[in-house]
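DNA mismatch repair protein MutL: structure tokens wanted.
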Amino acid sequence: MASSDIIQLLPDSIANQIAAGEVVQRPASVVKELLENAIDAKAGNIQVILREAGRTLIQIIDDGSGMSETDARMSFERHATSKIRQSEDLFRIRTMGFRGEALASIAAIAQVEMRTRQADNELGTLIKIEGSEIKTQESVACLPGTNLCVKNLFYNVPARRNFLKSNSVEMRHILDEFQRIALAHPEVGFSLHHNDTEVFNLIPGKLVRRIIDIYGRNYREQLAFCQEDTSYISVRGYIGKPEFAKKTRGEQFFFVNDRYIKHNYLHHAVTSAFDGTVPEGSHPFYVLFIEIDPAHIDINIHPTKTEIKFDDERSVYAIIMAAVKKAVGVYNLSQSIDFED
Ligand code: ADP
Ligand code: MG
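Answer:
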């Protein structure tokens, strides 16, 4: 039988659309990716504007570095990134992004308009791109930083669009991503508007202030500082006092080098440290920041980067448990001192 060749390289638009399936599950994924880009661009202030829970509009405006005209175009190419150059860089990642896939993915499945300007340039660049196809590129007057509008998410992927949940569920996911990033960066100002209503306006400040601004004034009295330093990692943050534990989970956060992560094993370290002080079935509040040399972690195991591996997980467990135990203990002590005052 005569052989015939049937393999072809996929066109970019299809390859990007497939990749987008991994990066962009829902509007919240877009919010996360764009917020992370703004953080990586060293923004001091970030605005989020949403319509219909992000279905019709997700706009993120930052006052960060902005991009040159060439970079503005390049940023929508797949595997195009300014954050890593060689494979060794994978072991010293300090930025939120590094895969160079987010903008390419988003532009494959939405109508995107980006205005971006570097502070030293008089004019910025406007790019309109949809379905991976650049429709417009021109010089425009705009503010320094980057203003990205993502309209009609999944306009060309009806199956995905139909799988989206109600606006309130999609908003819940967006707020989860927004709050995680806002907690990780109290030094950055954030605002969030949904359908012209202001949902958050967070001014830059200290971590306690950020926690209170997100969760409410009543948290102020309920937090205990937590800190432990070793040569391997340093842990710091706040735990909620044991009697403040809630029936619902959700206000429990780990950040590794300022990146929000999910880690059941480490979560167990925290809950074990609370053992005997919180009632069965209650969930203590915690916001813990772990600083570690990036050479000791692998964040490359999942496209959304919420899972990471430590080279010595047992040590991380032990140090976190010690830090939280100490904080719970100090709190008990200081309560009795307060009584004597
Ligand atoms: P990654 O963040 O993994 O590098 P992205 O697709 O998210 O990939 O972005 C591609 C590149 O575009 C980034 O490496 C960065 O150089 C540039 N970029 C994206 N968003 C911004 C922004 N808000 N401000 C400045 N540069 C940006
Ligand atoms: Mg990115």
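The pocket of magnesium ion (ligand 2) is lined by residues 33, 36-37, 97, 102 (CB under 6 Å). The longest strand covers residues 133-140.

Cheers.
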